[in-house]
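Support reply, case 0932

Customer input (verbatim):
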Amino acid sequence: MPASRPSPEGGRLLRAARFRVQLSTRDVERLSRRIADDKKSRDYYISHAWLTDAENGAYTPSIFKFWSLSIIYKRRYEEILAYFGIQLADIVQEQKRLSLPRTHLIGVQPEDVVPLLRIPEKMKEEVDLGKTNLVSRMFGEWGGVPVSLLGSGDHDVYGYVGTEDFTLYPLIRPGSFVQIDASQTKVDQGGWLGEIDRPIYFVELRESYACSWCETREGRLLLIPCPRSSNQVREVRFPGDAEIVGRVTAVSMRIAD
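Our regenerated output:
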């Protein structure tokens, strides 16, 4: 990231962050000197003149000065980065877009970049995890879903396959999270090579959800289970009693306890 890149908006937000903690540029200089001494590196030092220029939008700070500003202003590191248009969460999405040719281990992302999924006690009491549901409805009251489960499509929504839902077992195991392309709501009637390629759909029913293969027949929607699941085909009025949320495009699931 070039330190000389101008950033007027980032500078304005940086000045506002300093005002919030009621510090002068000389105060920041003094505090940053302590950080630089502790780190044994001048890279963390922020002079009065440098900060004045940065707040005037003359350039973008280095990662070391971002660090010092985050500590001094008591703001999260990624928040300071965001002032200058840098989103740490974008790294996860870009990693997903960039496919590598060889099998490899993936390092663990820091929790600040990819928040862990923590289920609140209230949710455990009020939400039946045994039933298939849309993630947005399950987590809506608690303000979001884990970044690591999310894709990057403009039409993506996310579903949860209940712990009691064996419809597509073992292709999709109970307790899995699925990514759904809400732009694909037309049921494909054929052309796939086998069960692995057969389109899977997330379906909203009158009082529940389903994640299954589908077929349509003269005003009826057939919810087709995987033969190995021992579940029975379900038939509902369509579109009267069912709506296709979208096609499942990805799945996140455990294969062992």
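We compared this against your earlier run and they match. Two observations from our side: The longest helix spans residues 25-39. The chain has eight helices and eight strands. Please reopen the case if you see a mismatch on your end.
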